[in-house]
């Protein structure tokens, strides 16, 4: 079998590409994942999510992640959208709100997007 590499935009893509994911998604799982990716399609929400996910303690106070170039009420709005999509969990402790990535979110995304031959069984 010959592997052909093509440039699509600035990305080199090899054809045929290995299949993605461990299995096809059910309708319910596709709806859930589509909601997650739709929430992350906004650049501000993607930045907020990445800041929470990358925080060394596994959770971040809103104070730690809010400097994304929008007002505090707008940050709150975007965090609400991330919560509604099931991407993050937030908890109020006194006057502070802490956010963490919802359990299972990162592994589910990684499994769906990685080539099937890279999955660990």
Supply the key terms.
20% strand; alpha+beta; Arc Repressor Mutant, subunit A; 43% helix; 121 residues; 3-stranded antiparallel β-sheet
Structure write-up:
This protein is α+β, with helices and mostly antiparallel strands. The chain has a single domain (23-118), classed as Winged helix-like DNA-binding domain superfamily/Winged helix DNA-binding domain (Arc Repressor Mutant, subunit A). It is 43% helix and 20% strand. It has a 3-stranded antiparallel sheet with strand order 3-5-4. A two-stranded antiparallel ribbon has the order 1-2. Strand 4 and strand 5 form a beta hairpin. Helix 2 (43-54) crosses helix 4. The longest helix has 14 residues, at 27-40. The two termini are 26 Å apart.
Concise description?
The chain has five helices and five strands, in the order E-E-H-H-E-H-H-E-E-H.
Q: What's the name of the CATH homologous superfamily?
A: Winged helix-like DNA-binding domain superfamily/Winged helix DNA-binding domain
- Give average pLDDT, whole number: 85
Helix-residue proportion: 40-55%
| β-sheet strand percentage | 15-25%
The count of β-strands is 5
Instruction: Fill in the CATH topology.
Output: Arc Repressor Mutant, subunit A
Anisotropy-based shape:
globular
Could you describe the largest sheet, including whether it forms a barrel?
3 strands, antiparallel
| Structural domain tally | 1
């Amino acid at each position: 079998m010959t592997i052909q590499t093509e440039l699509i935009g600035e990305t080199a893509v090899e054809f045929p590409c290995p299949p993605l994911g461990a299995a096809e998604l059910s309708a319910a799982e596709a709806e859930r994942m589509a909601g997650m990716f739709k929430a992350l399609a906004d650049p501000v929400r993607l930045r907020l999510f990445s800041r929470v996910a990358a925080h060394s303690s596994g959770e971040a106070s809103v104070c730690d992640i809010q400097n994304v170039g929008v007002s505090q009420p707008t940050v709150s709005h975007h965090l609400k959208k991330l919560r509604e999509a099931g991407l993050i969990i937030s908890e109020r402790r006194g006057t502070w709100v802490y956010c963490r990535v919802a359990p299972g979110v990162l592994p589910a995304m990684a499994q769906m997007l990685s080539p099937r031959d890279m999955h660990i069984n």
